[in-house]
Amino acid sequence: MKSNKLASIALLLWVATIAVFAWFFIHGNTEKGSDGRTAIVLQAGERDLVLSEMRGLLSATQGILEGANEGDMQRIIKAASAAGMKGAADVNPALMAKLPMEFKSLGMDVHRDMDAIAKAAATGTPAPEILKMTSNILNECVACHSAWQLKSAN
Ligand code: HEC
What we know:
- The protein is mainly alpha-helical.
- It is built from seven helices and three strands; from the N terminus they run H-E-E-H-H-H-H-H-H-E.
């Protein structure tokens, strides 16, 4: 009887831990932002990491447009693959837990679409089609920027 009770308590604690972790994984570490957006609160180093990834996305976009303008498919492949899923894979779990689900999902969409552009360029897709794909990615950049802000906790 006594060990049964202990087992129930252990089970309850286990469920509670998972629930708290799941809650964070979905909602992230957020608060009301300073300008009407939602702020994601990160450590200074984590914020720097996300922002440097952002600058990578901007230069990938620049590379794709330049490649499309000059008809240089290799340039497009190189720029788009640099911002693909491969680069997103090594984000640490603590940072992942602080990012809200919707944010992670939009971010993954962008990386996946960058890979799709690299593949399109490699298989001879015409430049206007690649520009259309790039324009769709830019909608995702705009959607995310209008919803979230990054705040440093220290
Ligand atoms: C999943 C959400 C999300 C997506 C998608 C996204 N961004 Fe961002 N980006 C942010 C947030 C949040 C910030 C910080 C904004 C703030 O704090 O005001 C940011 C900041 C930036 C910055 C500023 C970097 C710096 O050093 O200050 C650039 C440049 C940028 N993003 C480019 C892009 C481009 C280009 C794309 C699309 C190819 C993109 N981002 C897609 C969320 C996103």
